Amino acid sequence: MNDRSFDQRARAWLQLGPSKAPVESVQAVLAAIETVPQDHPVLWPLGRPRPLMRGRSAMALAAAAALVVAVLAGSLLGQRGPDVATTPSPSTSVPDTTGLLAGYPEATVRLSKSVGSADFPVSAESKVERIEVGHLDLQGPFVVGIACRGAGKLRFEVSSGGAEPFMNLPVTCDGAPFHEEYLSAPQGSSAPGVARPTNVPANAGQEVAVSVAAGASWRVAIGEYPADLTARPEFPLVQTTSGWNQFLVVDPPQVGRGLGAAIDVPENATRLGVFVQCTRPANVSVSAGTSSGAVTCPTTGAGQRVELAVTGGSSLDVTASADALTWLRIVIETDGELGRTYPSAPPLPAGISEVAYAAGNDQFLALGTLGSSRQTIVPMPWARPGLAAGDLVAVGWAPSGTQPTRLELWSISEGRALRTLAEVSLPSLIFESWVDGTHRQVFYSVFDAAAQKVEYRRVAVDGSGDQVVASVPMSHASTGRGAALALDDSVFVADACAASLDCVRDIVDAATLERRTVQLPTGETCALLGVVDGLVVESTARSCNEETYRTTAIPLDGGERRTLADGRIEGTVVASSAGARIVYWEGVGEGQVFRILDVASGAVDDIDSSAWGVQESWLMVERIRLPGDWVLLSAGLGDFPGPKTFRGVPRLINVVTGEQIELVNLPNSSQ
Predict the structure, then answer these.
(1) From CA 221, how far away is CA 490, in angstroms rounded?
(2) What integer pLDDT is reported at residue 41 of this predicted model?
(3) Is residue 225 located within the same domain as residue 259?
(4) Quick check: 584 and 594 in contact, CB under 8 A?
(5) Out of 112, 300, 580, 659, which could bridge 221 as a Cys pair, Cβ 3.0 to 4.6 Å?
(6) Which range marks the domain in which residue 633 is found?
């Protein structure tokens, strides 16, 4: 596995996508199952600094990023999180506390305080004093109005339960009213899903304080919005206009005053269509580069569509800005074709060109072959393709937040779904899948929310014979996880551990579907890397909640674990002509190196990266079945709509000879 891990994808899906699972179920799933890597967008608010990350995580996210989605929240002042929006309101005379929130009619004033005159300071005293303004019991989002006259700045703080302030605003004492909105349920409220320190109980309320020059005049008013503003609506699905292609869906992270997406317009596009869906009265201006339009909220059904002229191949921001708080969603379509055409593939070893692959993110499924220079891009919410075999791949996806999650069998060459293999109703979820090309069947995993267990199931590629082949109670799966199909399709393996570290392995014969269970030595399976030559290669630890891992090989039917490397390896297992190899990366300082480990001898060789550029040094090991002794490194194979991303040219590596081939025909940012 690499660091586009299940945790990241499941958290994003369960928080922003179609999840109805209770919190305890979500936590259990996150602890229980790892699945295949996915490409996901990087999210941050427009107008704010992008978060600084170091090491592989930063580069991996940069490489996988396909778009920028943002709440138009204005400039940042002080220590504020992603749930606030700022509106400066210049004025020559400070209004009283009643008038300070006059521009926010939906807010009910809950607390106010006034010191001194509206037009001049009380005195020239500049010594800063801290003043407790009062206690609040806010349950919903709120707006703050602040103004002061005098020396320096006023610092406004809201905290809960003695914890560090969750709102911390420096306001210049120049008389100009300043407004800030906190657009989610605050700490100290009893609202579900509120992020709070462990020492802050629900219903602790909020403490408000200011630090300001003793001679300053100042005004503070806090108004609470209705608590139901934080309730996420279920927007109707939007049908793409005939002859157009769905390009991007921008879902709101919270109620707000706007959304935006930075995009690269498809090469042959001349127009964008923007559907605007909104829930509360507001006027919304829509723009794409220099083109603009307007929409009146609230909308019904698919919303209102604005058509905007664009230049193919250009980079621009698509924004929807509201003059009042509302839930906003925009769906962007284009008259151009999705995806880019890359240069032709270089000469490739026998059998490589035909190897098919699939990649998914929260909006699209990408299908292609290693010898092609263009992909088929299909709109598909939360597409989760599994391990492909030949031309077939099983794809789990979620049509909406209320419909069952679905597992479909796709033909990669035809770019279409052949049939639905399985469906489960929310909050149960379908996760990973493996196509067994030898026996024409698909293994897949299901989190059964009602029964609190993980089921591993098997279904034939024609849709028949769906049955449970292994089942793990959540009480066992919560501390150890791992499942894999052997590289030769001989067996399907699932490991699980009870809280007492009593660990077992279910081994399913792929030909007969007979199952046997074996006892494992003490130590959890934290990540199952592969099953090859009668061995299971896995990352283990005394407890997966700890940081001390080993990468080990253990006989399929149990026995003594043999340590291959200290630490948790991120990579894949290859059945080469010289024996089993693990291809993995290892962080070194601010960068990383790729290595090949001989499973039999434990010998390690570095992959020569002396001729690689900076982008290539941050590739990842793809889990794709390749013929011969080859493995593929890339920074994500999906050519998803959005801006061009920081990712190097994918490389084929021969694990025996060390030969390398650059696949300039696959998605990369060097074109």
Answers:
(1) 69
(2) 35
(3) no
(4) yes
(5) 112
(6) 356-662
- Give residues with Cβ within 8 angstroms of 169, minimum separation 6: 77, 78, 80, 144, 146, 155, 156, 157, 178, 180
- Angle CA(183)–CA(188)–CA(192) in degrees, nearest 5? 65
Mean pLDDT across the chain, nearest whole number? Answer: 82
pLDDT at 1: 35
User: Is the same domain home to 551 and 459?
Assistant: yes
Q: Give the per-residue pLDDT at 96.
A: 79
Q: Is residue 630 part of a domain?
A: yes
Flag whether 40 is in a domain.
no
CATH code for the domain of 282: 2.60.120.260
Specify whether 170 is located in the same domain as 226: yes
At which residue do the structure tokens 């089942």 appear? 471
Q: Is 460 exposed, middle or buried (0-12, 13-18, 19+ CB in 10 A)?
A: middle
> Which CATH number goes with the domain that contains 448?
2.130.10.120
**Is 200 found in the same domain as 275?**
no
Question: Each residue of 191-222: pLDDT tens digit?
Answer: 766 666 666 676 788 999 999 999 999 999 99
* Same domain assignment for residues 375 and 278: no
What pLDDT, on a 0 to 100 scale, did the predictor assign at position 199?
A: 66
DSSP single-letter state for residue 64: H
pLDDT at site 9:
35
Residues 262 and 220 in one domain: no
Looking at residue 106, its amino acid is: E
Q: Is-contact 171 220, C-beta < 8 A?
A: no
Helix (H, G, I), strand (E, B) or coil at 441: strand
Q: b or e along 39-68 (b: 16 or more beta carbons within 10 Å of the residue's beta carbon)?
A: bbbbeebbeeeeeeeeebeebbbbbbbbbb
Which among 176, 195, 230 is the end of a domain? 230
| 184 plus 263 within the same structural domain | no
Within a domain: 343: no
- The answer to whether 618 and 56 are in contact (CB under 8 A) is yes
Count of other CB atoms within 10 angstroms of residue 198: 6
Sequence-distant (≥ 6) Cβ neighbours of residue 49 within 8 angstroms: 76
- Please provide residue 241's backbone torsions phi and psi, each rounded to the nearest 5 degrees: -60, 140
Residues 315 and 368 in one domain: no
CB 245 within 8 A of CB 258: no
- Planar angle of CA 629, 632, 636, nearest 5 degrees: 165
Among candidates 555, 569, 570, 668, which has minimal Cα distance to 614? 668
Query: Is 16 domain-assigned?
Result: no
Tally of domains within the chain: 3
Please state the φ and ψ torsions of residue 541, each to the nearest 5 degrees: -160, 160
Nearest Cα to Cα of residue 338 among 265, 289, 287: 265
Q: In this structure, what token pair is assigned to residue 317?
A: 């921001």
Instruction: For the chain, give the longest Cα–Cα distance.
Output: 89
Contacts of 464 (CB under 8 A, 6+ apart): none
What pLDDT is stored for residue 251 in this prediction? 87
Question: Model confidence over 237-246: pLDDT tens digits?
Answer: 899 999 999 9
Give the pLDDT score at 195: 63
Check if the beta carbon of residue 293 is closer than 8 Å to that of residue 308.
yes
